[in-house]
């Protein structure tokens, strides 16, 4: 059932006969706030420490993803989103304190993720803020872990809640943030290719339009 009615119906069918998702359909797939490539935006500025650059951008991406999820959170309920997924073929599981893999509702998964990331960002041993403090040797591993989880939230929003994004006319903002996120992740090798699978068609569209 389409929550907002026929205005945001399914897109045209793909070659295999399946309906194209809204975020791959015109005009939404081209909605953006920035024309051209974002590669210059994500490049490490001269004289800036790479870990500082990673830290600042990770903090910003976390806050922006949190804002977008907050905009659709009232529709992401344990009843409607009983598992954390990115479409029918991708389900995400959580690893609990006993190292057990469990399926939990999407809102609970996102809450766990955001709480975990916030704790990491507040940890001075990982994200030092005091003058003279150094980043830990495994800092990049921490960043990659954060990016993996943020991507999953993007994927859930696109696959399950994109109609709500359209309802508030925020598709250009979300698409631009996602393109920025993917471009940055590619620049610094922060995401495994297999993680991109749920949104790989959109990533290809961003490549072909030379936005990343």
Automatic annotation (TrEMBL):
<dbReference type="InterPro" id="IPR036703">
    <property type="entry name" value="MOB_kinase_act_sf"/>
</dbReference>
<dbReference type="GO" id="GO:0005938">
    <property type="term" value="C:cell cortex"/>
</dbReference>
<feature type="binding site">
    <location>
        <position position="76"/>
    </location>
    <ligand>
        <name>Zn(2+)</name>
    </ligand>
</feature>
<dbReference type="GO" id="GO:0000920">
    <property type="term" value="P:septum digestion after cytokinesis"/>
</dbReference>
<protein>
    <submittedName>
        <fullName>Uncharacterized protein</fullName>
    </submittedName>
</protein>
<dbReference type="Pfam" id="PF03637">
    <property type="entry name" value="Mob1_phocein"/>
</dbReference>
<dbReference type="GO" id="GO:0005934">
    <property type="term" value="C:cellular bud tip"/>
</dbReference>
<feature type="binding site">
    <location>
        <position position="161"/>
    </location>
    <ligand>
        <name>Zn(2+)</name>
    </ligand>
</feature>
<dbReference type="GO" id="GO:0005634">
    <property type="term" value="C:nucleus"/>
</dbReference>
<dbReference type="GO" id="GO:0005935">
    <property type="term" value="C:cellular bud neck"/>
</dbReference>
<dbReference type="GO" id="GO:0032153">
    <property type="term" value="C:cell division site"/>
</dbReference>
<dbReference type="GO" id="GO:0007163">
    <property type="term" value="P:establishment or maintenance of cell polarity"/>
</dbReference>
<dbReference type="GO" id="GO:2000100">
    <property type="term" value="P:regulation of establishment or maintenance of bipolar cell polarity regulating cell shape"/>
</dbReference>
<dbReference type="InterPro" id="IPR005301">
    <property type="entry name" value="MOB_kinase_act_fam"/>
</dbReference>
<dbReference type="GO" id="GO:1902554">
    <property type="term" value="C:serine/threonine protein kinase complex"/>
</dbReference>
<keyword id="KW-0862">Zinc</keyword>
<keyword id="KW-0479">Metal-binding</keyword>
<dbReference type="GO" id="GO:0030295">
    <property type="term" value="F:protein kinase activator activity"/>
</dbReference>
<feature type="binding site">
    <location>
        <position position="156"/>
    </location>
    <ligand>
        <name>Zn(2+)</name>
    </ligand>
</feature>
<dbReference type="GO" id="GO:0007118">
    <property type="term" value="P:budding cell apical bud growth"/>
</dbReference>
<dbReference type="GO" id="GO:0043332">
    <property type="term" value="C:mating projection tip"/>
</dbReference>
<feature type="binding site">
    <location>
        <position position="81"/>
    </location>
    <ligand>
        <name>Zn(2+)</name>
    </ligand>
</feature>
<dbReference type="GO" id="GO:0062200">
    <property type="term" value="P:RAM/MOR signaling"/>
</dbReference>
């Amino acid at each position: 059932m389409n929550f907002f009615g026929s205005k945001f119906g399914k897109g045209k069918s793909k070659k295999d006969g399946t309906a194209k998702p809204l975020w791959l359909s015109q005009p939404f797939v081209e909605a953006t706030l920035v024309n051209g490539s974002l590669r210059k935006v994500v490049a490490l500025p001269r004289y800036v420490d790479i870990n500082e650059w990673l830290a600042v951008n990770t903090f910003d991406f976390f806050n922006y993803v949190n804002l977008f999820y907050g905009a659709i959170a009232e529709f992401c309920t344990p009843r409607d989103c009983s598992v954390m997924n990115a479409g029918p073929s991708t389900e995400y599981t959580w690893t609990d304190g006993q190292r057990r893999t469990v399926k939990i509702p999407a809102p609970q998964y996102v809450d766990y993720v955001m709480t975990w990331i916030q704790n990491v960002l507040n940890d001075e041993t990982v994200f030092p803020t005091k003058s003279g403090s150094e980043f830990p040797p495994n800092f990049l591993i921490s960043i990659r872990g954060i990016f993996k989880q943020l991507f999953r939230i993007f994927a859930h929003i696109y696959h399950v809640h994109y109609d709500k994004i359209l309802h508030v006319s925020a598709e250009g903002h979300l698409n631009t943030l996602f393109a920025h996120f993917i471009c940055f992740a590619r620049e610094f090798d922060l995401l495994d290719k297999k993680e991109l699978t749920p949104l790989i068609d959109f990533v290809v569209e961003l490549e072909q339009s030379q936005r990343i």
